[in-house]
Amino acid sequence: MTTPMKFVEWPCPTHDGAVRNEAALVFDRGRAARLLVIPPLFDEANKLRRQIVEVMRRLDGAGIDAILPDLPGCNESVAPLAKQTLEGWRKGTAAAAEHFRATGVLTIRGGAMLRPAGLPGWDYAPQDGVKILRAMIRARIIASREAGTEETREQIEAQGRTDGVTLAGWHLGPQMFAALETAQVSIREDGVTAIDQETVGGRPLWLRAEPDYDAKQADALAAIIAIAMREAA
């Protein structure tokens, strides 16, 4: 059986109220069970990209279509990241869920803050915005110190709120920065389940220095989802 993995385009709302095409990596055979995958944010998305694709590949083998959309400013998108907002990304994931006719959603880490309402699914190791910022600011302080420059957390936060700031290679605009400072994972609706790392097993891949892949963890996460989606069918 040939793999259905491919890139397609989907209509995504933009920060100025228009619509532009963004890319999505899909395993799509037109089946009834269709999972929208919302990746982690920023550097964690890079670290987990292959792992996410391997989970999707296993779900394809279990009879489930899976869709991984690019959000504006990320991956193949040509939209400027500095103009993106957390609320804009939420509108994007909701639009992707509707366009691809998703019947379920898997969010990973900070992606849980973008989970569309009304879809059953899973939050894998969900993380709030302030924790994401804290880690990125810490990394900038360390990098600055190694380059011979001293910066404080307070200085970086002040810059982020007024002008925006570059953290770990990602230029966040002031609206995005301020939203992340207070953004929390939404209260889980009926049908949305949290999956912790202990359930999946192994050391979290987002803690590794470089992007990596773990077959056993991919097997475990895909099995949790596949079993539940088959039971719900």
Question: What descriptive keywords fit this protein?
Answer:
233 residues, alpha/beta, Rossmann fold, 2 domains, seven-stranded mixed β-sheet, two-stranded antiparallel sheet, 9 strands, 20% strand
Question: How is this structure best summarized?
Answer:
The chain has 233 residues and is an alpha/beta fold.
Helix-strand blueprint:
Blueprint: E1 5-13, E2 19-27, E3 34-38, H1 43-61, E4 65-69, H2 86-99, E5 104-108, E6 121-124, H3 129-146, H4 153-162, E7 165-167, E8 170-172, H5 174-182, E9 192-195, H6 197-200, H7 215-232
Parallel strand pairs: 3-4, 3-5, 5-6, 6-9
Antiparallel strand pairs: 1-2, 2-4, 7-8
Describe what this molecule looks like in 3D.
With 233 residues, this protein is α/β, with parallel strands linked by helices. The protein has two domains: 5-127 and 185-232, Alpha/Beta hydrolase fold, catalytic domain (Rossmann fold, 3-Layer(aba) Sandwich); 129-184, no CATH class. 39% of the residues lie in helices and 20% in strands. The chain contains seven helices and nine strands, in the order E-E-E-H-E-H-E-E-H-H-E-E-H-E-H-H. It has helices at residues 43-61, 86-99, 129-146, 153-162, 174-182, 197-200, 215-232, and strands at residues 5-13, 19-27, 34-38, 65-69, 104-108, 121-124, 165-167, 170-172, 192-195. The strands form two sheets. It has a seven-stranded mixed sheet, with helices on both faces. Strands 7-8 form a two-stranded antiparallel sheet. A hairpin with a 5-residue loop joins strand 1 (5-13) and strand 2. Helix 1 (43-61) crosses helix 7 and helix 4 (153-162) packs across helix 5 (174-182). The radius of gyration is 18 Å and the shape is globular. The two termini are 24 Å apart. The mean pLDDT is 93.
